[in-house]
Design goal:
Radius of gyration: 15 Å
Largest sheet: 6 strands, mixed
Number of strands: 6
Number of helices: 6
Helix content: 25-40%
């Protein structure tokens, strides 16, 4: 059994690619957070819906539950930044999850800015400790060699 769990949300496939590469490099188990209703693939449309949901205090329902995190030594957690914070499905997941003292290493993918992502993650994470943040820009995500190098460097720092 793996000692690392990767929890991620991916609306466009970028974070799924990151999660799968991390799993290949670490032998970790994967858990994909999935909302009941998928968001539009157009980033701007998805952001508008997400902003409205947050303003109304109505985060999306998830069709995935919470994995048995107690079986793992550490958690890798990632997804996109929407409107400078965690994507709404990740926020829904964090409301349900108890990290039971696990170290959490996070990555974020973003188009323009991610200013509040780390602070919001730390504020919403229950019973876990966040250690740093790997920021992955679209330029890095679209260059396989650069992405692999960024992931390798990050994994070396957190091992």
């Amino acid at each position: 059994m793996a000692d690392t769990l990767i929890i991620y949300y991916s609306s466009t496939g970028y974070n799924q690619r990151v999660a799968k590469l991390l799993a290949q490099k670490t032998g970790a188990d994967l858990f994909e957070v999935q909302p009941v209703k998928a968001y539009d693939k157009n980033m701007w449309t998805a952001w508008d819906v997400a902003k409205e949901e947050r303003e109304e205090g109505k985060l999306p329902a998830l069709k995935t539950g919470v994995p048995a995190m107690s079986k793992y030594r550490r958690i890798l957690f990632g997804g996109p930044s929407w409107g400078f914070t965690l994507a709404n499905p990740l926020q829904s997941f964090l409301k349900q999850a108890d990290f039971a003292g696990k170290p959490v290493y996070s990555w974020v993918t973003f188009y323009d800015h991610d200013e509040n992502y780390l602070g919001d993650l730390k504020a919403q994470l229950h019973n876990g400790q966040v250690y740093g943040l790997l920021e992955l820009t679209m330029g890095t995500l679209n260059d396989r060699q650069q992405l692999n190098r960024a992931l390798d460097d990050w994994l070396e720092k957190i091992d």
